Amino acid sequence: MNLSKFSIKRPVTIFMMIVALLIFGFVTLPKLAVELMPEMNLPVALVVTSVDGGTTGEVEKLVTKPIEEALATVANVDTISSNSTEGASQVIVQFNWGIDMDQATLNMRDKIDQVRGALPDSAHAPRILRLDPNSQPILTLSMTGDDDVIKLKAIADKLVKPRLERIDGVASVSVSGGEDRVVEVILDPDRMSAYGLSIDQVQQALMSTNVSGAAGTVRQGDGKISLRVQGEFQDVKAIGDTEIRVGTGTILLKNIAAVNDTYKEITQKAYLDGKPSVGLNVLKSPGGNTINVADQAKKEIKALEKELPKNVKLTMIMDASVFIKDSIYSMGEHALFGGIFSILILLFFLNSARSTIIVSIVIPISIIATFSLMYFSGQTINLISLSGLTLGLGSLVDFAVVLIENIFRHREEGKGMVEAARVGSREVGTAVMASALAQICVFLPIVFVEGIAKEIFGPLALTVVFSHIAALLVSLTLVPMLSSRWLKRIPDTSLYEGKGAYKGVNPLVWFNIGFQKLTRFYARILKWSIGHRKTVFASTIVLFVLAIFCMGMVGAEFIPSMDQGKVTISIKMPSGTMLKETEKVVAEVEKTVKQIPELKQLSTSVGTSGGFLSVNSGNKAQLDLDLGPKDKRVRSTDQIMEELRTKLSVIPGADIVVKAFDQSGGTGGSALQISLRGDDLAVLEDISSIILEEVKHVEGTRNVTSSLEEKQQELQIVVDQQKAAYYGVTSTQVLSNVRTAFQGTKVTNYRTGDDEIDVQLMLPKIYKEEITYLEQLRIPTGNGSQIALSS
Predict the structure, then answer these.
(1) Residue 701: pLDDT above 70?
(2) DSSP state at residue 541
(3) pLDDT tens, 346-401?
(4) Burial 133-163 (b: 16+ CB within 10 A, else e)
(5) Burial of 230 (0-12, 13-18, 19+ CB in 10 A)
(6) What does the alpha-carbon distance between residue 252 and residue 256 come to, in Å, rounded to a whole number?
(7) What is d(CA 292, CA 271) in angstroms, rounded to the nearest whole number?
(8) Full 3-state SS string of 640-685
């Protein structure tokens, strides 16, 4: 080969090229992002919309349907599905593979903006999210140590969150739990009736008083000064001093209402090992190095712990970098041991330390060159790419071994170092190149396929191709050059061929003596097989049939499950269950969970179910269990989950699901999903309940659930339009009065520094306690009088 001839004649040039390659590799290696799984450009986007109030049917009709119809006109859409629950809507859009998802999300945003005005006022602005397995929080923290979660939330918002968000690579930090401050304006119905005031009048007075904004400019000398009207409330007392027009005069708000600076009603609680807590989730920026970001965040957390009050503690609930490190380092460790074993085997066979050193130098240089090529192609270090590198590691050794062995043979025949290197590399160089190109041609087509196969196995194929290119170039240049300079001494092969005395011989020779005996034994077996061809053929057929039979006994799955020691228990009570009742069931579940000897940490959240459609719901709860590392447990996670399922199944009135928490970066979802479609929701509900029960009886099924939520019981207030017109009352007035009485209405915001506090207009909370207050609720009429809602 001309390349090997050039390397022998220009050793300094080759040496300088290798040094430059090493320097460049060490510079680019830290810039490679480290992830558990490769970044997947999945053609799936979510549109998530939260809704204040509203039943599942209303959310489906008023929010989900308009968004679905708007998104149906976006180009390259494959399928659209949705999930509507009380208070939230989720629309899932799956595009054709291979499209630009950045442009697709922009197109989605344009379509949603067109229907934004048609959505009800209770619907918040829709959020468009791309489905990315690596977009999950990399760190989850729990702050405990003070029974007052209000103080904990203040510390998390004011101190911890800003410090963590400053870290390079951190996209955002979200705080969950605790209580939010609110100003409640509790109206006195009797006094309002006496003054002939309506809720709308109070609402308009608050909104028109709490106003500030720019009002133009005024000239002063040669310049202009901006004008700003400042009319916002300066303190809570100013809210009570709001004047409300009554006839020809005015009355202060505090004379007809109580103004309380308090906190919102608790709809969600969080605990860590039984103690009240506040949670923090740290999300990294796209393309960031998870391990580096997590390490920097943990350093900042250690610094923050010194500034926190003595009774406040930050506890790590989930650290994605630990599992990534364990997985990546385990893969790297196996690759390292594989390379070491291959070098030792080469040493035993050739009995030449210098030949072994040459191969030992080739392997790390080829690996570093592979990392450089990965950097330029935008790849990351993950389990898949490292699997490709490990797969290519065999070729890294093969190419060098083939060359060095042939050169070594020519040295044994008596040729000089330079001549042996030139002739030996020329003889097998073409074969080595053909082998490399053949393996490249096998893996390279995977890069051009579409779908999930490309997203997962594309990095593996590229890494294999890169490693083979690097191994080929380094083997054809470095091996001949080093061999022409270093192979000065060749061991005496007559020793392990039985022609010399064995006494005092190097131990490596004894290996070759044993290998010579094994070779002769194999020759005898081969001779017997040739003489008994029918027996060998029949045995082969029998083994082939047995292999086919055993194939059905081997399980099949897309990505193997990993025992990560994390278990999630989801609890769902009947719809409408109060938070206190859910807490009682959670206490029973916690009692059972604490009996598990492997339990290291227990995090509990009552009032939410988590996920994209996470809304405060008093009938749901979630427990997260940390069982510790696998090597420190006698039982596996699956065994512990089966025990929990058995013990928790006896708790009445609760739907409890036990499943493993997946940190591996997969897209999640159930192993088997059944889709049921139709136009009549009632018919779908009946059929789905039948299918659900049938599937539950199938052996091996676990956590069988239906996406159809249980119906929420409700009372409907139907407005008699003729009577309403007679009294001069509109449906809007009825809705406004009922909502204010039984839910409360946000009318404006009260600013304190950087915070915005809701000002909520409401009637006394006793109205929520008795249904009789609903019929007695007074509605102001057009002539100033008031009538009961039942009228």
Answers:
(1) yes
(2) H
(3) 788 777 778 888 888 888 888 888 888 888 888 888 878 888 887 777 777 788 88
(4) bbebbbbbbbbbbbeebebbbebbbeebbeb
(5) exposed
(6) 7
(7) 29
(8) HHHHHHHHHCCCCCCEEEEEECCCCCCCCCCCCCCCCCCCCHHHHH
With CA atoms as reference, report the closest residue to 677 among 16, 80, 76. 80
Q: Which three-class secondary structure state does DSSP give residue 472?
A: helix
Contact 619, 575 (CB under 8 A): yes
The answer for residues whose C-beta is within 8 angstroms of residue 260's C-beta and 6 or more apart is: 183, 184, 186
Q: How confident is the model at residue 26 (pLDDT cuts 50, 70, 90)?
A: confident
Number of H helices, E strands in the chain: 24, 24
Helices (H), 241-382: 290-307, 320-350, 353-376
Cα dihedral sign for 759, 762, 766, 771? negative
Environment class of 441 (CB within 10 Å of its CB; exposed 0-12, middle 13-18, buried 19+): exposed
Q: In a 10 Å sphere around its CB, with 0-12 CB exposed, 13-18 middle and 19+ buried, how is residue 341 labelled? A: exposed
CB-based contacts of 327-330 (< 8 A; 24+ apart in sequence): 327/36, 327/383, 327/562, 328/34, 328/36, 328/381, 328/382, 328/383, 328/386
Contacts of 15 (CB under 8 A, 6+ apart): 481
Higher pLDDT, 665 or 674: 674
DSSP lists the bridge partners of residue 673 as: none
Return d(Cα 626, Cα 316) in angstroms, integer.
11
Q: Give the whole-angstrom CA distance, residue 669 versus residue 580.
A: 31
